[in-house]
Amino acid sequence: MQTWPASQILLVDDASSDGTAAYVQHAYPQVTVLQNAGTGLAAARNTGVAAARFAWVAFIDDDDVWHPEKLAQQLAQANACATPDAVIWASQVATLNSHGGMPVPRATPRQFATWPACLLGSPIQPSSVLLSKNLLSRMGPFNEQIPEGAAYDYWIRCLSSGISIRYSTNPLLYYRQHHPQMTAAVRKLEHFLRIDALVAPHLARLAAAQADRIRLARWLHNLRSLMAHSGVRAALRYWNTSVPLPALRLGLGLRIIFYFLLDTLGCRSPHRIRHVLRQKAMRILIGADRSLPQTQDDISRHRSQGTLVD
């Protein structure tokens, strides 16, 4: 239950066969059930957005859990902003293990929360966001032609259009981690190849040198992940499938080397300094001068010091 009750609750049934839709209609008459005919997650989100009648929209997948203060805290942050329609209001995330136990806070991927840094990884978990209906109307629908990663594509489109991200101070989303999830070597390899294809058109918008650096950094990220979670064989398959030999002539220059070493160190560091190291690594790679998004506490502190303008 939310301390700020939702004005409208929409359940998009993507062709389920377990009787969930009928049960919800009977047990929760305040919930509007919409049918999606099995056309996928992007289409389900578009169906929900089209039916939404109020100023704010939040998504939640069926196995995720919101903190009771999720809507209240994000609406308070949005109402305190001069330009709330130009912001994606995202929360920090904690992981729920499917076998039980306490939620474990996840590192907030702030290093990916600007353009073009977002081309290296998704900065947001979809179930964590609060979006204005005006923003959704302006940016258009989720791309239903993308088989995997349509939400990530949407965040890229938003950030490249000048929209910013603000994170909550505390985790407001509990993301349920299933085991095994995305751990099979073949599945993980297919995932990386699909996301590479998703990112490619956005990379084409950048200057060649910057696009090459980000592309190479993506390959290194993916190889590192495959080596850690799927083994050498999967990493070699990805190398042979996705990394062209001319990439080696990009120079693996000092900027790439420093970026990758610092980012890897950040991944293995305690939570309290992880984001600092990974932000520094991103600035080395992208060459960005402006600060990356921080938590709401950081934003409030900067505002009180007169160093932040909404």
CATH superfamily of the largest domain: Spore Coat Polysaccharide Biosynthesis Protein SpsA, Chain A
Determine the mean pLDDT.
84
CATH architecture of the largest domain: Alpha-Beta Complex
Helix count, per DSSP?
A: 11
Q: Ranges with pLDDT <50 over ≥5 residues?
A: 289-310
Radius of gyration: 20 Å
Assign a percent range to the helix content.
Answer: 40-55%
Give the N-to-C terminal Cα separation: 31 Å
As for the CATH topology of the largest domain, it is: Spore Coat Polysaccharide Biosynthesis Protein SpsA, Chain A
Q: Count the E strands.
A: 8
Main structural class: alpha/beta
CATH class of the largest domain: Alpha Beta
Q: Biggest sheet, strands in spatial order?
A: 4-8-5-6
Strand content: 5-15%
| Largest sheet report | 4 strands, mixed
How would you describe the shape?
A: globular
Secondary-structure element sequence? EHEHEEHEEEHHEHHHHHH
